[in-house]
Recover the amino acids of this structure.
C-alpha cells in the first residue's frame, strides 16, 4: 500500500515535473520569453515563477503534465527538435541518476523512480498522435521531416 502511495503522490509528479522541466529548460536556452509548466489537472493549488519559467501545480497533481510556450517569433524546426527532446533527455537523466542511487542504496523508492522515468522517456519518444496531441517522438519526427525534407509529417 505504501508503495502505491509513493508512486502516485511522489514518484509520478516528480517524474512528470522533471520531464516537463526538460522541455522548459531547452525552451529557456532557446530564449523563449514565457514558459509555463503545469503539473496535474483540476483547480490550481499554487504556482511559482523561476525567471521566465512559470510552474502551476493543480489539485490532481498525479494526473498528467504539460509545458507550453509563448513567443512572438515562430519556432524554427531546430527549436522544435531541441524542445521536444528536452523532456525525454531529462527523464533519461533521472533514470540514470536513480539507477546509480539504487545500485548504491538499494531502496524501493529509487528503483521505482528509475523504472518510471525510464518508461516515461521511452513512451514519449514513440511517435504517436492521439486526439490532436502529439508525443515528443511525433513532434521530433515532424520537425526533422520538415527541416531536412521540407515535408509535413
Amino acid at each position: 500500500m505504501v508503495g502505491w502511495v509513493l508512486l502516485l503522490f511522489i514518484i509520478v509528479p516528480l517524474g512528470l515535473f522533471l520531464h516537463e522541466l526538460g522541455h522548459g529548460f531547452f525552451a529557456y536556452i532557446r530564449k523563449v520569453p514565457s514558459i509555463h509548466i503545469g503539473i496535474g489537472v483540476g483547480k490550481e493549488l499554487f504556482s511559482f515563477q523561476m525567471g521566465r519559467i512559470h510552474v502551476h501545480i493543480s489539485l490532481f497533481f498525479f494526473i498528467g503534465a504539460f509545458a507550453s510556450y509563448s513567443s512572438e517569433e515562430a519556432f524554427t524546426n531546430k527549436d522544435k527538435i531541441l524542445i521536444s527532446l528536452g523532456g525525454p533527455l531529462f527523464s533519461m537523466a533521472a533514470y540514470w541518476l536513480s539507477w546509480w542511487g539504487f545500485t548504491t542504496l538499494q531502496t524501493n523508492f529509487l528503483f521505482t523512480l528509475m523504472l518510471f522515468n525510464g518508461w516515461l522517456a521511452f513512451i514519449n519518444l514513440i511517435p504517436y498522435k492521439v486526439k490532436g496531441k502529439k508525443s515528443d517522438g511525433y513532434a521530433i519526427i515532424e520537425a526533422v521531416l520538415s527541416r531536412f525534407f521540407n515535408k509535413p509529417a
The mean pLDDT is 94. The chain is about 60% helix and 25% strand. Residues 50 and 72 are 21 Å apart (CA to CA).
